[in-house]
C-alpha cells in the first residue's frame, strides 16, 4: 500500500488543480479558490492524464467482494482533521471547492457558491440549506470495503475516508444517485468525466485498491475524452 507516502502525488494534484481553476476563472471571470491541494480540476493537465492512463493500466482488476460487516463507523471519525490544520475536513473541502465563501470564525464555512462538477448546476450554499451541498467520496467507502478495505487497519480506513484527494463538494441530488456505485454504474456529466477519472484512478492507485472490469472499462472511456 502506498497510502502513507503520497507527497509526490499530492504535489502533482496541486499543479493540476491550479490549472483547472485558472481555466474556470478565465471562462466566467469569477474569483476561485486555487490554493489548496486536490481542488476539483475540470480540465486536467496532459501530464496528469498520461499518469492516469499509465496508472489505470497497472490497477488490478477484481470482482466485488462482500458488503458483510460494512458500517460507516468502520472508517473512523467523520471529517477528522487528519492534516492537522485546525479545521475539520468538511470545512476544508467547502473552502477549497466553493467560491465566494463566507466564514464564521477561522474554519466554519457558512455560505458560498458551488459549481457542481457532477451536474454543472450552480448551488447557493448556506447553513440553512446545508444538505444541498454534500461531500462525496469519489471512490465510495462501501465500494472500497468490498474491494479490499475490509482488511485494512482502522487507521488506514480513517485516513482514506478523510483524504482530501478523495473528497469532493457536490450537489446532493447526483451524490445520492451515485451512492456507492463505481464509474461502471454511474457517471458525471460528460464535461467532467476526464477529471473524474483522473481523480478516481489516482485514489485507487494511492491506496492499492483494485477496480472491477466494468469500472476499468468506464475509466478508459472517460480518459479517452480528455
From TrEMBL:
One Pfam family cited in the UniProt record for this chain: GmrSD_C
What positions does the domain GmrSD restriction endonucleases C-terminal occupy? 92-219
Region: Disordered; residue ranges are 29-54
Renumbered to this chain, the Basic and acidic residues biased-composition regions fall at 40-54
InterPro entries in UniProt = GmrSD_C (IPR011089)
In terms of domain of life, where is this protein from?
Bacteria
Against PROSITE patterns, the record matches this protein to: PROKAR_LIPOPROTEIN (PS51257)
Tell me the PANTHER family matching this sequence. AMP-DEPENDENT SYNTHETASE_LIGASE DOMAIN-CONTAINING PROTEIN-RELATED, SECRETED PROTEIN
**UniProt protein name:** GmrSD restriction endonucleases C-terminal domain-containing protein
Source organism per UniProt: Actinomadura namibiensis
